[in-house]
Amino acid sequence: MEFAELIKTPRADGVVLHRPFMPTVEGTLCLTGHHLILSSRQDNTEELWLLHTNIDSIEKRFVGSLGTIIVKCKDLRVIQLDIPGMEECLNIASSIEALSTLDSLSLMYPFFYRPLFEVIEDGWQLFIPEEAFKDLESMTDEWRLSEVNKDFSVCPSYPSLLTVPKDIDDESLCKAASFRHGGRFPMLSYYHKKNGMVMMRAAQPLTGTNGRRCKEDEKLINATLCAGKRGYIIDTRTIAIAQQAKARGGGFEQEANYPQWRRIHKAIERSNVLQESLIKLVEACNDQSHSMDRWLSKLEASNWQSHVKEILTTACLAAQCIDREGASVLVHGTEGTDSTLQVTSLAQIILDPACRTIRGFEALIEREWLQAGHPFQHRCAQSAYSNGKPRSEAPVFLLFLDCVWQILRQFPCSFQFNENFLIMLFEHTYASQFGTFLGNRVAERVKLQLSQKTVSLWSWVNRPQELERFLNPLYEPNNLVIWPSVAPQSLLLWEGIFLRWNRSTKCLDEAYQEMVHIIEYNKELQNKVNSLRRQLAQLETEDSPLQTP
Amino acid sequence: MEHIRTPKVEQVKLLDRFSNKSVTGTLHLTATHLIFVESNSASAQEIWILHHHIASVEKLSLTTSGCPLLIQCRNFRLVHFVIPRERDCHDIYSSLLRLLRPVSYDELYAFSYNPKQNDQQREEGWQLIDLAAEFERMGVPCDQWQMTDVNREYKVCKTYPRDLYVPITASKPIIVGSSKFRSKGRFPVLTYFYQEKKAAVCRCSQPLSGFSARCLEDEHMLQAISKANHNSRYIYVMDTRPKLNALANRAAGKGYENEDNYSNIRFQFVGIENIHVMRGSLQKLLEVVGTRSLSMPDYLVGLENSGWLRHIKAIMDAAIFLAKAVTVEGASVLVHCSDGWDRTAQVCALGSLLMDPNYRTIKGFMVLIEKDWISFGHKFADRCDQLYIDPKEVSPIFTQFLECVWQLTEQFPQAFEFSEWFLIQIHEHIHSCQFGNFLGNNQRQREDLQLKERTYSLWAHLLNEKQLYLNPLYSPSFAESHPVLEPSTQAYHFKFWRNMYHQYDRSMHPRQSILKQVLTLKESNRELEATVQALKTKLQKFGVSTSPLKPKTPPTERSLPPRPRSLILGAPLLSRKEVQQEEDEEVFGEEALEDPPASTGGERTVEGSSATENGYGDLPGSFGPKNEPTVVTLEFGVARMTC
What residue of B is the nearest CA neighbor of A293? Predict the structure, then answer.
């Protein structure tokens, strides 16, 4: 298919662009296969480059022959284009609609994007499971790398290499896989070096109404317990929902069959509820009425902050079991691709200082989200403004980022990255020139040959030129477990995302710059003092024979 | 001392407000403080509670472990003791009941507090703020405004200061006539003069207009205010009350200005609620945020139902209206409420702060409080319950003003010379009665109490510790580019001030403080600049010439590094020795030593970061013995970092 077929009017002159907190720009609007571009004729400084995939929905309005298109983006920005001429406007609107809702993955921009920078370090090769396993091997010999899922037949949503207990053979793995939803048998998520406890993740067991059991599954998770030790199973669903799942063939681990495990139920909502929550929250944030009561009640009704609190609390609980109780943990919900990953990845941020570095955080996303089979393509197809029929969209990853931001707020010196890094990740999950977040699982990415045909986000982010803006100037590495407060008073609305386009941040940005300046000046002075001291010491040693009587 | 029956009780348990943690220690009762000293010597924390800070003491019913005593403080601290013997508990309880309700001013701490200063130092402290100089700074007296001596003897208005500024055309008979037509004699006087447009902010109380009464002198008075400003043909009259309240007042012979009787006024209601509504609102807010294991919906619904942020926003909206009328339209504004000492003070002070960058400095903020709150007779004694008079008079009016300022610091991080810690510290002292400034209800009363001779000034104390209260991001050039602050009034800009209302609740705060970190760095920059200078001088002795250092900030004399003793800023950096010293001298810092003093000055800790404190959920049926230590060790839980 040619993009040209979809573009009825490739360009229009005299288009006026309105953006929040920026001066309006008049210029020429161009539509290409992947972008909506506006350039002013006078100088080329004021330009809008918008990926069609970033467009969530559009609205058309007409006053006489002047048409207006309101473009609502997945990154929550709302812009307005005034286009003279009714026909042009209608054509452009329908082109945008068609181009922004293309379903075919192979037509996505990452397959067409050619980087304007030299790829020095290929992001596709940065975080391969073999490397991660080498790290694990240096700490313990209890685990092995299994190729049982080589052709993705045992579990389609798992990667081809899996870390499993040493004593469990591939045959048992296959049996355990048949007992878990989507074949997602328990596998290693995190090894806590300090006390050797582990966190595993899986999907729900398929106990069904008649209480099926699977010896291999039991053996598999028991293999992770030291002699005489017990563990915790954290089910991210309420007991009621877990009970209901039995009717559809799912279920939860029965005490009788898993005597060494204690089950805890939490209440993290499922994806459709989360999407609804996002829509309501964004609506509340865009409400222009200045009424305090209206804002607070809408914020409450959106339930977003409750989700943040619940997810963070569950992650803290998992971390507490591992670090404080000295017990191993198995986390699962239903499919094990959403709430499970929120919990396991956040618990690692709390427990493992390495995850608080930029590389470590990238590795965490790679391991616990991309390779773990979080369906990014499905979850991020639509955002808060979409009029489309909701399918399986949900801000699962955004909620994870929000929770990370909450921890970052409480420990502002413990992270190598800053808020901008998290915002950037949010943007790229919804619309990107990079291939990293395309597809729903490893198998799909292999099939699409993403690593050959597209550029990895990490190849771009890790360049020193880009990295600079994501570095936290306050960062001082610390090797400790960081326990965030989950009291409602301690959790804030993430303004950097939700009020990003609704307020002027000039004063806040300037203040941030001032802080950076103070920190840099401190480093500069320290260097100066050191070099002067050296100079002086040198002179003193040279002089000392003369001075000694 | 005669009220203290039991000066010391041992084996007292202190329960944490939000978790199941507790520590054991000894409770001491002194003439001025209730002191809890933890017995675990490793981390021995001390809590000092000034009797004046105690709002209520409650003895709960006896439990197996002892008799619980619940103490609620005006600085939002809440402590829960369990005393082993009921007899001791009762003694402490009844002693406190007597001690926390002083009946005469002489019993207040300020009259016994002695910071080891001589008379001269004390006098200098009181001379720090000079309101005449402040009016001069604004450009008053001038060709349109003059000082009047009608109230020199407090004869016209008992609750106003002696020196008042009025339009030159307002003659004595007009003033006196107007004052008779205003509630409590509080006639219209100048409080702020916006020199650029010659526009004035005036304040007064409600007119005694009833349903039809009028007063020619009062009408003349407003006319005179209007005439004093050639930039505008009209003046705004802002009645800060809701219209309904103003209407109701008419039945009592009070009310508001009838636009038909006053020429060229634009009358406006702004709808700030009265002291009783505000008191109830804060109470509701504190109830909500004091709930254990509070859920998110309960928190947000509670926040909304308390109405607290709505009230804060109403005050801010009014102040913005005032600032716009003056700076944009160049019109003079007359502000009043009922008596003109609560809402009027809030709106005038906050409006001035928006218009004048000087009030956003540490010294300027003190002047502002001195002018619009202390001198114009905000009833601190009644509102802050300094003497036990009438619980219906108590109201967090001044607290709201401080909170509005905090909300502004959130929108304009570089506009203020001070940090929120300064606001919290001032709040601490409106209740502490440790310094003379906020004692009493008006200037006349303060003179009767001879406060300047018998007590010390808070401002001198705060200026001494200025280092602690600096906002490291403050930029004087911001004031030049933003002489008038124009805050957004979108509802989402108004946030719950956790660091005020949970200032003593360790588990609520960010575990690392950006404020403290940047303050420390800025201080370190100053020291490094001095070191560079010293090293260069030494090098010069060796005949090495170095390029002159161009400091980005002017080098100042070396001062002590900041030692914030606040949970918000992190652990205090007081050494054990200094604490000892303070005790010896009986100079009790107002803020009790909440935290174990860090072992060395240079260490920073990640505050109270522990799993148990946060209550992520009790693990059901924990296996085996729980190895939860009662005291969080530094090894895990509290992260520790070294510079």
Answer: B304
Calpha distance A165→A171 (Å, rounded): 13
How many angstroms separate the CA of residue A276 from the nearest CA in chain B? 16
Helix (H) or strand (E) holding A540: helix A506-547
Q: Is the pLDDT of residue B254 over 80?
A: yes
Is B492 part of the contact surface with chain A (CB cutoff 8 Å)? Answer: yes
Contacts (Cβ under 8 Å, ≥6 apart) of B64: none
Strands B78-83 and B145-148: unpaired
Task: State how far residue A44 is from chain B, nearest Cα, in angstroms.
Answer: 29
Which tokens go with B318?
């009014």
Tokens of B193: 């003069």
Phi, psi at A162, each rounded to 5°: -130, 140
Contact B178, B215 (CB under 8 A): yes
B215 a catalytic residue: no
Print burial letters for A18-42: b (CB count within 10 Å at least 16), e (below 16).
eeeeeeebebebbbbebbbbbbbee
Strand partners, A12: A29
Interchain CB distance below 8 Å, A411 and B512: yes
Backbone angles phi, psi at B606, to 5 degrees: -80, 110
Q: Are B344 and B315 in contact (CB under 8 A)?
A: no
Closest CA to B528 of A511, A523, A217: A523
Instruction: Give dist(CA B427, CA B404) in Å, integer.
Output: 13
User: Residue A539's closest chain B neighbor by CA?
Assistant: B542
Q: Which residues of B fall within a CB distance of 8 Å from A291?
A: 491
pLDDT the model gives residue B561: 33
B113 touches chain A (CB under 8 A): no
Q: How crowded is residue B558: how many other Cβ atoms within 10 Å of its Cβ?
A: 11
- The amino acid sitting at A241 is I
- Alpha carbon distance B363, B356 (integer Å): 13
Report how far Cα B259 is from the mean position of its chain's Cα atoms.
37
The active-site residue out of B89, B204, B337, B404 is B337
- Is the pLDDT at A125 greater than 70? The verdict is yes
pLDDT score of B559 = 35
Report the complex ipTM.
Answer: 0.94
DSSP state for residue B294 in the 8-state scheme: -
B394 phi and psi angles, rounded to 5 deg: -75, 135
The number of beta carbons lying within 10 Å of the beta carbon of residue B632 is: 19
- Can you give the three-state secondary structure of A242-303, one letter per residue? HHHHHHCCCCCCCCCCCCCEEEEECCCCCHHHHHHHHHHHHHHHHCCCCCHHHHHHHHHHHC
pLDDT given at position A289: 85
Instruction: Collect all residues of chain A within an 8 Å Cβ-Cβ radius of residue B287.
Output: none
For residues A121-144, give the mean pLDDT: 92
The answer to whether residues A198 and A225 touch, using CB atoms and an 8 Å cutoff, is no
> Which residues, in sequence order, are bridge partners of residue A231?
A261, A328
